[in-house]
Specification:
By secondary structure, the chain is an alpha+beta fold. Helix content is 25%, strand content 22%. It folds into 2 domains: 144 residues, OB fold (Dihydrolipoamide Acetyltransferase, E2P) (Beta Barrel), CATH 2.40.50.90; 50 residues, no CATH class. The chain is built from 6 helices and 12 strands. Strand 1 and strand 2 form a beta hairpin. The radius of gyration is 20 Å and the shape is elongated. About 3% of the residues have low confidence.
Length: 230
């Protein structure tokens, strides 16, 4: 085998090892191998040679806005992606490939692991579907987020988080540090204390949130699983 052919074969083996574990043959035809230059925050990375990647379908607390858990979320991604790490970047055929800021929208794989899913599973990020569009990993992302919240992992244990994966950019994630206030389990996506006193919708700042039985404040009058609609 010639030197050129050997180098090509080695490059092919290396690329396949980087993307090992991706979900389909179609992914293996569309992925891009890249090198991490710097982790900007909990859901954004810069690449060597230029280019910025926004991990698609997830959302981490904003460092610039000093949101609860922002620095720890950034640290979680930096631990997974040190400078020089080789990654596979995979677009989602159901979603935009580039956002309005020119960032690549991608799932980021390293050592065969989908880091978008990994961050959500450990509570370092939430799920956000821009314009309500669900990508190929939407179901898995939501399941991981709900489990992380239920087990108080990461930001779910450190913050009083209000989360709406389908909401507009201004409301997709809000959180303040926990202060000992109890949150009733009937309202899993917001923090509303149990009675007493009995609260009405006019007493809380939230609208159209998830409600589970027994709904002690009776926010879900039509029993459709949503509270304070309209």
């Amino acid at each position: 085998m010639s030197r050129k052919a050997a180098l090509a074969a080695a490059a092919c083996v290396f690329a396949l090892s980087v993307v090992a574990g991706v979900s389909s043959a179609r992914d293996s035809r569309t992925f891009q191998v890249a090198t991490v230059a710097y982790v900007v925050d909990g859901d954004t990375i810069d690449l060597r040679g230029g280019g910025r990647v926004r991990l698609v379908q997830i959302d981490a607390p904003e460092v610039r806005e000093r949101e609860c858990y922002a620095r720890r979320a950034t640290g979680a991604l930096r631990a997974l992606l040190p400078p020089g790490a080789t990654v596979a970047l995979i677009p989602d055929a159901r979603l935009d490939r580039v956002d309005r800021y020119g960032r690549l929208l991608r799932y980021v794989f390293r050592h065969g692991k989908n880091l978008n899913l990994a961050l959500v599973a450990r509570g370092a990020a939430t799920v956000w579907f821009f314009a309500g569009e669900r990508g190929r990993y939407a179901t898995a992302l939501l399941a991981d987020a709900r489990k992380a919240r239920r087990e108080h992992r990461g930001l779910w244990g450190a913050c009083n988080a209000v989360w709406d994966p389908y909401g507009p950019a201004t409301t997709r994630y809000k959180a303040t540090r926990t202060s000992g206030r109890r949150c009733d389990a009937s309202y899993p996506t917001v923090c509303i204390p149990p009675p007493p006193p009995d609260l009405d919708c006019s007493d809380v700042p939230y609208r159209n949130f998830d409600v589970r039985p027994p709904d002690p404040h009776h926010f879900d009058g039509d029993h459709d699983g949503r509270g304070c609609e309209g």
